[in-house]
Write a structure and sequence with these properties.
The complex is a heterodimer of chains A (426) and B (308). By secondary structure, chain A is of the alpha+beta class. In chain A, 37% of the residues lie in helices and 22% in strands. Chain A is built from 15 helices and 16 strands. In chain A, α14 links the parallel β15 and β16. In chain A, α6 packs across α7 and α10 crosses α15. Chain A starts with a helix and ends in a 24-residue tail after the last helix. Chain B is α/β, with parallel strands linked by helices and 308 residues long. Chain B is 36% helix and 20% strand. Chain B has ten helices and 14 strands. A seven-stranded mixed sheet of chain B has the order 3-4-2-1-5-6-7. In chain B, α3 packs parallel to α4. Chain B is globular and about 55 Å long. Classes of the chains: A alpha+beta (426), B alpha/beta (308).
Chain lengths: 426, 308
Amino acid sequence: MRFFEYESRAIVAKAGIPVTKHGLAKSALEAREIAEEIAGPVVIKSQVLTGGRMKAGGVQFAETPDEAAGHAERVLELEIGGHMPRGVLVDSRAAVKHEYYAGVVWDGIRKLPVMLFSDMGGIDIEEVAEQHPDHVARGHFSTLRPFSDWQAKQLIASLGITGSTLNRLTPVLAKLARLFLQYDMTLAEINPLSELEGGAIVALDAHMDMENEARPRQQALLRELGVGDEETRQAREATPFELAGEEVDAQDHRGVAGNVTEFDGNLGLVIGAGGGSLTLFDAVRAHGGHPANYCEIGGNPSVRKTCGLAKLVLEKPGVERIAVMMSIVSNTRVDIVARGVIKACLELGFDPAEKIAIFRIPGAWEEEGFKILEKYGIDYADRSVSLDEAAKRAVEKIERSSIGQAKPEAEPPHQDAGQDAPRSTP
Amino acid sequence: MILVDENTTFIVQGITGREAVNLTRECLDYGRGAKIVGGVTPGRRGRDVHGVPVFDTVAQAVEDHGAPIDGSVVTVPPAFTKDAVFEALDNAIKLVVIVTERIPRGDVAQMVELARERDARIIGPNCLGIIVPDVIKMGGIGGPARDAAKSYSPGPVGVISRSGGMTTEMSSTLTAAGLGQSTAVSIGGDAIIGSSYAELMPLFEADPQTEAIVIYTEPGGRMEAELARWVTENDSRLPIVAFMAGRFMDEMPGMSFGHAGTIVEGKEDTATEKIARLAEAGIVVAEEISQIPGIVAEKIAARAAAAS
């Protein structure tokens, strides 16, 4: 989860890293008050969870409180990359002598955090690394041993920095390394980390991302910052359809029937598990299909939950049919998913044989599952039909019914399972 | 086979949990029957799970066994996983399979660091474990013994997968085509995991049964680039066939699908970029899973022809 700049600043300040005098304003009036208190030139910065603020006009400079209020009024109304700002940061404009970069990220290959430091701050670090690799220093550090100041010192000194600058930068980087681990960050970045005319080192901008998995144990910090549980802080805001999916998944704690993501196609997907969903979504698109949604079933969810998810997808405007598909299951039960999706169709007054384009879930309790599917005349497939083939069949059915032909008869059940139980449609 | 064999002894930490009870049953029933020498749940000493004695501590299990224990399957809640893994490592256990998901990276990094110091190996977290077809399974991989027997069969293919379910899906496809597996490893779907593709390759390389490798991969992270580099730098005898899922995610940066580690954060971790990297290293990337057995058979035949 990403933090706003004003929150990131609060986090670095809490870790003992100096920041310039600033405040968050939600109105022009508040911006004026903060500017008056700063009593000098200020910067007005839009608080949005997206990049490109400067280009979009979300960063403005003001000499007087009046000017600050004027800028704040406009910036507060300015949408950037589809986001409306939460407020504006009113920041004192400091006389900067030099700009540095300091950041910490995870290295998934070395499986250690790595600190990056550059004496070319204020610009994108990836750009610096590409064009001026000799201006970027990198140092991995242990997660078991406490971070020691010399590790920061060595990194900074490796770029040839010495004197009081070295001694002032060292504790700042050490504090950044410690806060990265302490607060379960996946990115902790100060850019620019500025040396002011007087020699002081201050964080002029900060960017922090925290790992979602760590939210439960970082409750104290999140409360302090005023971040509520309902704020997901994902790359894009959840749609009402996606929120409804979360509600379905939260009905009980048995298994997962969620992680619903909305798309605008006509083929509803009730798919799983993690890797299976990714494979199936790709397969539907590769065959020219248009998914109405992405989702993940796994961990053996209840009939009720599966039914809830299927209903949500079936009722989504534009959905013509649903495809129920998973990679071979070992924990989730085939019969339970079958019951769930059939129940959803029936409760909404649909013929399951008509609405379910294909059911392809092999694995645990498949014999029981296939019997139920046969009873309702649903086209199903066992493991001899690949995920790709199943997706293809679903797409073909949708296309047949979408091009204005008469609604096709319920497809005869697939005979792969070799069962001849009598069928009856309700 | 790699990592485990019929003589491997292991414990289950968190054995009295619902999933762990099932997992224990499955492993006892599968193949030649896993040697599960104990289970650990604090406060439950004296009980048994399907005949496996339960202890309060790993040390008690080791003492009861009277010899070092090879491995542990850890299935405790995320907040307690680091402690459980440390306990296993400090009691000289050398192979730890972590099933638990949603463990923060900082904890995982600590476990991995301690494992390195102890000369031990971690598989996972967020994984289903290891299976040597018809011999042993360590973890929930493949499900109940009779289901696992349908999907897995012994043979020449080593399988490494970031998805537990897809390990079984791919192995089942291979089995149906008459290509068995030497060992299949579900390595886990998190951003930091104990053993990556490149870290398992030397083990398969040294295993005479293994003649080819099949991997399942996703966007996110640099593990595929690491494998490509390993293949380029080491003169591997093993052909590798890869399947890449989640290609649609390239258009949706910053959003996580499927697994915690599956997220496009930069240009380098897109599906497109990874496919290019793998291909450059001579790794065949199959468009569909059903194509994999054919490619593998062809590669194995080509190698046999070249050797004769």
